[in-house]
Amino acid sequence: MTSVLQSTRERIAHTAEAVRGLKRLRELGLSDPRDPAEMLRTLRESRVFGPPATAVRRAGRLFPDNPAVADERGELTYGELDRQSDALARGLQRMDVKPGTVVGVLARDHRGLLLTMAALGKLGARLALMNTGFAKPQFAAVCERENVKVVLHDSEFLGLLDALPPELPRVLTWVDEGVEVPSGATTLDALIEANAPTPLPAPKKPGGFIILTSGTTGLPKGAPRDKTGPLSTVQMVDRIDFPRGGTMIIVSPIFHSTGFGTWLVGVAFGNKVVTSRRFDAERTLRLIAEHRADFMVAVPTMLHRMVELDPAIRAKYDTSSLKGIVIAGSALSPELSQRTAEVFGPVLYNLYGSTECAVATVARPEELAVAPGTAGRSPTTCEVVLFDDDGKRIRAKNVKGRIFIRSGSPFKGYTDGRHKQIIEGYMSSGDVGHFDDNGLLFVDGRDDDMIVSGGENVFPQEVENLLLERADVFDAAVIGVDDVEFGKRLRAFIVPEPGEKPDPDEIKLHVKNTLARYKVPRDVVFLDELPRNATGKLLRKTLLEYQI
Fold this sequence. Notes:
By secondary structure, this protein is of the alpha/beta class. Helix 3 (51-62) crosses helix 4 and helix 4 (78-93) packs across helix 5 (111-123).
């Protein structure tokens, strides 16, 4: 009886939360009851086209003259983006891309990627977003696992295509200056030019899309989404003040969930999205100044490089237009949180989530001001709870536990058949964290990163955050390596600030004076750069292979 009552209460609570979410969308102007015809049309389209195509079609109707994308080739309006993606869809259809066809897309952030995502949705094809950091064996293995039948790619990745069957159709989405297009190759521009910019009949159902996990411990897994509803959008916009009809710079890769999700929100609000094929800290400041950007989306390592630029370089660019910076993809250190406020003001939002769980929490600028590094609170339709190793709920403050998430954008399992652990309807994020006295979430590290040294549990992120506070440390990582006496011992990898030469013994003493003795690194190794992937996540496996 108790379990039935509890289940009933949960259903009522979730229904009430969904109602609050829809109300929030109306408040933000993403759902306008004064235009029921448009509301119904968008809802119907979302059920057959999927998010990218639905967003572009809606923006083409509501904001046809608004700039949609600005890249190295100039700007396209939303009307042009919609029409050109129609033409591209027709061209791909003539290449036998049909509803359900899996199309691998290996492209950096530019108009070609956005046109491709919209066109595939209009065809009902399945979009598989590939990581631009792939080595050839990874790329080939993922294409085989996901049953990719067509590949659209930038010219810089021509070498990777050697790993695929030569008969596999392919289209060039971007051709770098000075690159000779291979004989007989098809380009995206040629397909657009050769086909009418008129809509195709709607597919019967959405093809869906696959976003890959970061792959920090092995081959990236595929996290599919067949469709998403309006409550997926409210997760992103409830606690983040996106501009409307403004300008967003997205330097976080759009092939990953944060860039993809924030681009969709940008389209929904009719924003101009400025893209950059390769990140450069000073160039990003220049883009902010040139476009008078309201907003930026980045990963922490990118933001770190921007705030660590020489003040004389930063002073060359007027970034006063910037009202919001969203970061996600890897941990935000308290030090970076504070440095960002010093350089750009109180504009930082820390988004915590995952490819599988979507958005879990968001820390707003005012929360980061009082609790630097916090992951914040859950937006409406989401909830974060903690469980111990035995699956028992942890409700006490300041007690570490495994983080589990209930999301309005549920994940139904990887493309290889595996799934995340679920307890009482909450999905594991794979992280460990705690809630402080104010109910703010802090992520203490990955569950599988925990180091057991001499019988004591150490989460490396705590030590890394302490090392990053030093003025002579630009970047830091801590791992556990085999030790005969302790089982594991801590090894710190340090990237010094330019011109600095930190002393290993001083670094150890710095940790010893603040943390428990068993958290002090026994080894300190200096590197020019830490191995990280495109979303800024540290590749600890690569460090484990490092020989000293």
